[in-house]
Amino acid sequence: MPTYFLSTSGNDANDGLSPASPWRSLDKLSTFPAQPGDVFLLQGRTLFPGRIDWAWKGIGNPDLPITLGSYGHGRATIQSPLGLPALHYAGVGGLHVRDLILQGSGGQTDSPKIGGAHITAAGENEPRCRNVQLKRVDASGYGMGGIMLERAEDLAVESCTLHHNTIGLFFSEVARAMVRHTSAWENDWLGPKNDEIQGGNGFAICWSQDVFVDYCDTHRNGTKTVNAGGHAGIILWDCDRSRVWHSQACGNTDPTGLDAQGIILYGCHDSEVAHCLTSGNGNAGLCFFHDEWCRHVERCTIRDCQAAGNAVDLVVIGTVLDSYFLNNRVLSTGVKAVDIAIHKTTDIRRVSFYGNAIDAVGESLLVEAVPGLTGVEGLPSNGLVAEVAEPFQVRGRGFAKLTDALSAEPIGL
Asked: Low-confidence residues of the chain, pLDDT below 70?
């Protein structure tokens, strides 16, 4: 398959088939009839103004992907115009993007629908976009997601850095996706207050199935976003069979003091958070959440995680069914208000806290819950708003110190 080269010293009249005869502009690339298997490489350490528009042009074959990347030393930069993405693709898929820097001109006040790489199916009634990969992509300065993938499946986002957008990574209606070794920081909506814009998220993964987030890092998101609701390091919203493993969410805050979770399962079913760290978040470190904007939470687990210095470390809100906090470690730092909170709850059944080690040595443990709470196992017996001076009791076993918990045998269901 042919490889085409672009350089700012080139000429669009060239054949583009070698570094000695490159094309010059992104307009040439946008109008070229790309074929399955074609490779397009931009000269590294070079700034290309403009955008790549491959939307609704019949481009792509999921079984023979097009590759877009850089050649030479370093990564090429695409600097897109105000209100436009750097890469816009709408079609059946087959697109691999690697080693590029995407820079928006509008910053975090740009249109809230603009992403750096915006990749989607051709329409709501068209086949899902399939076989899309983004690796080693840096995206900043966009009014929505640095990377946006919608109505797509069989996806991989790996080793990307997403910062100074409204949302770092945005998924909507995707399936079978993996996100690995990707970082998102300082993503905020900086435009006028508009509560319909969900900004200030590191990752927002919505209405999706079979998504796996692994070894990722989200920090300092939402610190300047004044809109109500939605701020989080990682939020899974109405997702099924999805997992967040080996990831961190730290220092995600909210200037209004109303939001900013570390990792939140919001209206999820059959999903899991495991082996993660949340620290210094403005609200919940680890959270099951349901309200009028999502489904109830059902059959979800948060396990083997560490939460330290969040405003509230472990949280259950709304209707939550058959879900578990298992073998988590909560480290008291003297800055948080509540260790465990259960509130705004209309229906809670078979929610259990087992094997969780709460390091409350030297200070009290605060458990906050709704009056008349039933259906919860593993909490201290005085589960209303209370200070518990005794060690935290888990199925009859108390841990006075975190080191005791680390050496103890796990407690199963």
From this structure: 107-112, 192-197, 227-230, 257-258, 332-339, 341, 343-348, 359-413
- Strand-pairing partners, residue 53, are 88
Rounded to the nearest angstrom, the gap between the alpha carbon of residue 187 and the centroid of all alpha carbons in its chain is 11
Which neighbouring-strand residues pair with 185?
163, 219
CA distance 171 to 214: 15
CA atoms within 13 A on the CB side of 157: 33
Residue 12 has what DSSP assignment? T
pTM: predicted TM-score of the whole model, two decimal places: 0.88
- Given this model, what pLDDT does residue 170 score? 96
Tell me the pLDDT tens digit for each residue of 175-211: 999 999 999 999 988 776 665 667 889 999 999 999 9
- Asked if residue 157 lies in contact with residue 178, where contact means CB atoms within 8 angstroms, the answer is yes
Amino acid residing at 92: V
Best CA proximity match to 359, nearest among 324, 302, 405, 411: 405
Q: Cα–Cα–Cα angle for 253, 257, 263, nearest 5°?
A: 45
